[in-house]
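Q: My labmate handed me this sequence with no annotations at all. I'd like to see what the chain might look like in three dimensions before we decide whether it's worth expressing. Could you predict it?
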Amino acid sequence: MRLRHLRAGLRGWGGVGAMAVVCALALACALLLPLTQRGGGSAPARDDASRVAVGTQARAETCTAPEKQTPAPSAADGPTIARIKAKGKLVVGVDQNSYRWGYRDPNKKGAQLEGFDIDLVHAIARDLLGDPDAVQFKAIPTNQRIQAVQSGVVDMVVRTMTITCKRLQDVAFSAPYFRTGQQVLAPKDSPVTGYDDTLAGKKICTAAGSTAYTKLADDRKAGRLPASADISTTVPNQLDCLVRLQLGEVDAVVTDGALAASQAAQDPTVELKGSAFTTEYYGVAMKKDADDLVRRVNRILVAYSASGWQTSYGTWLSATLGSNAATSRPPAPQYLRTS
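A: Here is what I predict for the chain of 339 residues:
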């Protein structure tokens, strides 16, 4: 049965397993990725995307809505933006193996980076530097995203990165640009039915440093996840979990539903099990002291949500996520109120 899953899975989307091996080698070498093609587009403005609410600042120890802990938009330049303009390029940490988010399609000539996150990067570069292609992409593993920002290896990370209170202690985030939630991915013939007791005795794979692993660890400790669920399998990049699933090394994967849906599209032998059991928001991660850049990105997101976001969603995500109200429109931003 496991061999059948492996054979069927490796046939999906040009051989996911083979692609993952190539991607892993590229990540290990920390290769500097080439400039990629333009992304994005324009779409009619949406009234709901342009509405903005302003919230009051929460103390770190009482943070309960991390997606609201970001400063208001501003068009003003500052020291961080000045440094980016001086070097003439925006250096961005991305993924190169998340199907439809940030990936290289081996079936396309040149196999340039493309996807929903990549479109957003081009929109940011267009605003900051006047050229959507003035970008250097760097492949950053899931568990190295924060370190890459803090060390200055990249100016920002745009890589399906969930905004959390814990991460806000280390980096600053933009307003959210996408809403998702954790879900379970497993073989279609698996007895696993979702995030429930059917995970008892099952081996579950997550990406190291991900919100999925944190959720599983917290829930097992609190008794909300069966104590016999094995969550010891973690990988540097989330796609590696799909490969482990195909090889029969794990029974299920827990990750963002938006990513899981794309992986199910790559491999017809797996499917989402149950509904999302968390609500999470993706944001652009930047240095904590880069207030000018954070505010500028927030301003860019307001315009992008009104014109560009919907086109990108239609191109990359509508086939796997459909017209679900929670995912098919940009989340309405809320900002900190400064005294």
